[in-house]
Amino acid sequence: MKRSSLLSISDLENRYNLDYINTIWCSIMMMSTEFLNIYLKPGVDYEDIGKKAFVNKLAERFEHFRELGDTELLMDLDTCHGCNCLQPVCKFIGNKSGNHFALFFEIEGQEIVDIYHCNWYGEQNISLN
Known about the structure:
By secondary structure, the chain is an alpha+beta fold. It contains 4 helices and 4 strands; from the N terminus they run ααααββββ. It has a single domain, classed as Nuclear Transport Factor 2, Chain: A (Roll). The longest helix has 17 residues. The termini are far apart.
């Protein structure tokens, strides 16, 4: 695993006033559904299932990572070679297990207008409905 390009929570710890996008990324890296419920904007139909269902889907994924011994997720940027061809995705990697999944963030200006799981990228053994 190439560590030099990975971002960890400690890289963001001493930064105050994170912008909106970095706050969401940090919340995912901390596996915090509480923060996601606070910071994700209401009314956005994340992954075409809505905010509540999307956060619940992430909660199941976070629980799986915790069961594998992970205490945080590291983040790396990669490229989707599937449905969002050659678009950047954020790959979240368990700090102990090395298992990972990727999310595609649709961003306009400084706002996240949608988030999708990248079904092409990630561990096949971490499959949630």
